[in-house]
Amino acid sequence: MPLLELRQVTRRFGDFTAVDHVDLAIDAGEFFTLLGPSGCGKTTLLRMIAGFEQPDEGQVLLDGVDLADSPPEARPVRTVFQSYALFPHMSVEGNVAFPLQMAKTPAREIPKRVAEALEDVRLTGFGRRYPHELSGGQRQRVAIARALVTHPTMLLLDEPLAALDAKLREEMQIELINLQKQAGITFVYVTHDQTEALALSHRIAVMNRGNVEQVDEPSKVYRFPKSRFVADFIGQCNLFSGTVAARDGGIVSIAVDALGTVRVATPSTIAPGTRASIALRPEQIRIGASQGDTASDNRFRGTVSDLLYMGDVTVYRVRTDGGAEVEALLANSQTGRAKFFEPGDAVEMDWPAAAGHFIED
Predict the structure, then answer these.
(1) 73, pLDDT greater than 90
(2) Which of 58, 266, 285, 294 is the most buried (most CB within 10 A)?
(3) Model pLDDT, residue 339
(4) pLDDT higher than 90, residue 160
(5) How would you classify the pairing of strands 16-26 and 4-13?
């Protein structure tokens, strides 16, 4: 049985449906992420798990028990907010001790529990400092220590890294992974950052307009998106849409406007004449000045219209002879800027049928 189960959970605000009949099952010890753009319903869903919002329909079950009548303070879950919500007039020790005091923990036990919690987040020796004396990363760790000190069944994190700079965010991602493993409790994490979700999670629920579009492991969400929205939202992706022209065994040919016939491997038995799409990641495309006579399922010529140098890789935007725009990625194998191609250069692109992912529209 899953630790947390959401059954047909719905939340409306007037005429607006923020969460629309969502079903989810989250296992004990899992690092589970709710991912989606602003306004997709992920924070509302987290607030219903925490008890700050009540569903208009459906059930939130923890260990099989319906939490409908349980106020936030009575639920064995704790929440870390983006703002951290630390008490500025309290020291670090005071902030971490506060939930223990509210739980009427014997006074003699509190110092030991606080010290253990601060050690878990590597803040031993910071107990007498105040929030304004800490860095953003340190304040975040205090918020996590305060949430974990009561040994909750589940920790909810609402975009806790959003206010941090890129380098600190990367460091804190590693800390969160290690902390979750060490604590051994379930994390439910909310973010709009695709890279963050892919790096942290055991599984990801991709949300859009109050619905869950896909729940899967990060590699499968990235490589095998179940919808055009997931393919477009997760990382960089070429989306080729057209009409199914033919099926030949496990290969489907799709007539794509401005590009031509694109072949993709799929077990689908979709009939010719049906609309469909292909999701193709830029790193799956081979790009060169000339590919010679090498056999390939898909081959197109074009001209580099733009490029984006990103340090370890360069992303090339190629306009094909038919007028389609295709993004291809090349790793930079030398120091400094690797000048493989420049705008205006003629190139050829090719990829095998198995490189793309077929999506029924």
Answers:
(1) no
(2) 285
(3) 57
(4) no
(5) antiparallel
Which two structure tokens, joined as six digits, stand for 297?
């399922």
Phi (first) and psi of residue 263, to 5 degrees: -105, 140
Q: Which domains does the chain have, with CATH numbers?
A: 4-232 (3.40.50.300), 236-360 (2.40.50.140)
Q: How many CB atoms lie within 10 A of CB 360?
A: 13
Look at strands 186-191 and 154-158 and give their pairing. parallel
Helix extents (H) in 89-185: 92-102, 110-120, 136-148, 166-183
Residues 116 and 22: their CA atoms lie apart, in Å, by 37
The verdict on pTM exceeding 0.85 is yes
Name residues whose C-beta falls within 8 Å of residue 18's C-beta, 6 or more positions apart in sequence.
Answer: 11, 12, 41, 44, 210
Name which of 56-65, 90-99, 157-166 the model is least confident about: 157-166
Amino acid at 146: R
Give the residues across from 190 on adjacent strands. Answer: 34, 158
Among 78, 61, 55, 58, CA closest to 26: 61
